[in-house]
Amino acid sequence: MLREVPATQAPREPHRRWFADEYLDLVVWISDPGSVVAFELCYDKPRAERAVTWSPEKGYGSFRVDGGGDTPTRNRTPILISDRSVPKDQVIAQFTERAGALDPAIRDFVLQKLEQL
């Protein structure tokens, strides 16, 4: 079940909320009136983490998450690398199963965007 994680707020960006469990991470950016303006949903964290993003400016993005190197000489900062495939049905099923405790406005917005992939 997704639970909210305290997130640090970056200057000059919309308010951000972060939700996580062992399989998913969801970060949503919210405007002043309280509407979702963008999101990043990371899924399949235990095996081969990938992400789907949406914003009005860029539309949809699909990525695999490169967790960085596993040696002291490599960068360990995760980065997103473009990946065109999204297992849409699997992502929607996992999100629906795990998002029951989310604010309904956030849950419904993200689900609507996932269904439009």
Please provide a written account of the structure:
It is globular and about 45 Å long. The longest helix has 12 residues, at 104-115. It has helices at residues 88-98, 104-115; strands at residues 3-5, 15-20, 25-30, 36-43, 50-55, 59-66, 79-82. Helix 1 packs antiparallel against helix 2 (104-115). It is built from 2 helices and 7 strands. The two termini are 23 Å apart. It has 117 residues and is α+β, with helices and mostly antiparallel strands. The mean pLDDT is 90. It has one domain (3-115). The protein has a 7-stranded antiparallel beta sheet with strand order 1-2-3-4-5-6-7, covered by helices on one side.
Secondary-structure map with pairings?
Blueprint: E1 3-5, E2 15-20, E3 25-30, E4 36-43, E5 50-55, E6 59-66, E7 79-82, H1 88-98, H2 104-115
Antiparallel strand pairs: 1-2, 2-3, 3-4, 4-5, 5-6, 6-7
Summarize the amount of helix as a percent range.
10-25%
Question: What multimeric state do the chains show?
Answer: single chain
Number of domains: 1
Per DSSP, the total helix count is: 2
Mean pLDDT score: 90
List the defining traits of the structure above:
117 residues; alpha+beta; 7 strands
Could you write a compact summary of the structure shown?
The protein has 117 residues and is α+β, with helices and mostly antiparallel strands. The protein contains two helices and seven strands.
